[in-house]
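User: Hi! I'm working on a homework problem where we have to compare a predicted structure to a textbook description. Could you give me the structure for the chain below?
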Amino acid sequence: MDLQRLMSLTRQAIDKYNMIEPGDHIAVGISGGKDSLTLLHALHGLQRFYPKPFSLSAITVDLGLGNLDLEPVKNLCDNLSIPYSILSTEIGNILFESRKETNPCSLCAKMRKGALNEEAKKLGCNKIAYAHHKEDLIETMLMSLIYEGRFFSFSPITYLDRMDLTVIRPMIYVPEADVIGFQRKYQLPVCKNPCPVDGHTKREYVKLLTKQLEQENPGVKSRFFHAIIEGQIPGWPANANK
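Assistant: Happy to help. Predicted structure tokens:
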């Protein structure tokens, strides 16, 4: 996938769900993985000609697990002229040393989001962009069905009233295969995830299940995606542009 297609798919979601308004200061959550670095490129590319002017900042919440070399990410942000902040935390120590969590993902996500929100507010941001792609939307829906017994997936845009921040997910129309293609084409400086449970989670199980379902039932991912987009899920924007 080239940058033009990435920006086209990203803009499609942004326009449909009114994700960006003039004067927005958007914090991009950067994990160092392929998804967040692709999102950074997408928003930087759109920033040059999008009719509603907005500014960007990049933030990484360092869990304190070690072995996370963020220098290549810093260099990328410098090249794109995007301010970059690294927030050092003890989240990893709390999860794996103090609490010795066996299923840490939910608590980790909550703590990371809290730290990211606080840093975004300090920087004067009013919105936070997450790099969830099309498969993330589908896998979240399947996880909700399998483990919670309800039809649900995260909303493209969510207002956090306690923080006075709006979360946007501009890449929900971008397939993961295109993200991988973009990463390879533009040689993104992806950082290895130091989390000790990486690849051994419920989400990883559902990711593999989704791939198997697609192999056995070609087109099922597209049908899942359509069901989510048109499913009138509670919390989703009701006035999206058609």
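For your comparison, note the following. DSSP finds nine helices and six strands in the chain. The chain has one domain: 3-229. Good luck with the assignment!
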